[in-house]
Amino acid sequence: MNRNAIYAIIIIIFAFLGILTLSKIPAKPITTYEECTAAGYPALESYPEQCKTPDGKTFVKSVQGPSTTNNDADLSDLIVIDSPKSNDTIKSPVTITGRARGSFYFEGSLPVKLLDSAGKVIAEAPAKAQSDWMTSEFVPFKVTLNYTEPTAATSATLSFHNDNPSGLPKNDKEYKMAIILAPSAITGFNIPFPLNIGDKVSFSDTLTVTLKSVEDSRCKPNVQCIWAGELSPILLVGKAQSEVRLGTATKKSVTFGNYTFTLTDATATTATIIVKKNNPPTVSQGACYVGGCSSEVCSDQKGIVSTCIYREEYACYKTATCERQTNGNCGWTETTALTTCINNAK
Predict the structure, then answer these.
(1) Does a structural domain hold residue 329?
(2) Is the pTM of this model over 0.70?
């Protein structure tokens, strides 16, 4: 065998050993959405986008929302949002908590807005400081926003604006956070549907029903009772979140407004109900008047008096409308602003 052949055999052997060694080097583990798609794995059509590897791991694409209106400013030392987090999925009503420096507040509050994907404000309310805000330190805040849930998952934005009484643009600071609105659960009238505690359903006419709780007054084992007791589901109805109480023994059916709520079954944590929409009554005629010690009463009589016990939510009626409702009675017209104001004042 000549020398050239020997050299060729040696080169082939070393090349084979090199390939064998490289094949044993473990592949770099995938830890991000970008690495997953770069490796050739498919991206799912979702929001935010997701990529799944053959071993079952899922990586979600980070959706970055604008953080501030003056983009060169970093507001992380001024405001921190504890809940919800960026890109979380939320349902109405949503309670927002966080911390902000005392300088971010004015008179103990700061404006919070929820904007849809088109930038339209769909809910807003002032976040209230939970302790003394006259400080340079972080002060916790809390606010609850009510809004009409979309029929499909939708991207949105939460806006936290410093309360700027000066009105000077240079003093404006705004923190924005991307969020996802969960779709509403839509059901129909005259059909039974189950609810777990906390579940909320919507109807085609915008009526909403939430199962707030189930009170259990049933007689306990080995206890003598004069009444067997019952399970009493408590519903929150409409934008005003009015309470409607049903019972497995009493009040199996309750009429509230233009609707009749019927309980068909209940457990300690669930309730199955049927909602019937009634024909609207003939609307009465005549003016409506604001009365009461704190102007908190809307009725068809002038000079109505009330007990002069002031509640903070009474201030919300100063900008509300007192008029005939669809049931023919005088009352305060429900709006998102009124509902939010009352909830935050309680």
Answers:
(1) yes
(2) no
